[in-house]
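*Target chain*
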Amino acid sequence: MFTVKIRDHVMIAHSLPRKSFGPGQKLHGATYIVDVSFMSNDLDDKSVVIDMEEARNLLKSILDPINYQNLDELHIFKGKLTTTEYLAYFIHQEIAKALASTFTGKIKVCLGASHISWVSYEGKV
């Protein structure tokens, strides 16, 4: 299995209005390190899994609309609890939609919420 991994970051604000989230129920900020791994058993006709610049640009285009935003105010997250797990899934789905016709394999999105906790979502395109 071949893997190409890229990294970026995103800064957001949000609240998690459930008692189980304790202080996270209130509006708070988070900075996530975003790692995306593209995995494939095969290389394309250029002998790569994915062009790294294309992958970085795609991730940036997905993160830009939510960067420095209060997710509670964005229509795309209306009715969603924007937990770290959900955000990893959201980013994965956006990448998968963009690459549906050009990439075969799996994508893993990993969000670093701190130096001691990471959350990931992995699935096929």
Notes: The chain has a mean pLDDT of 97.
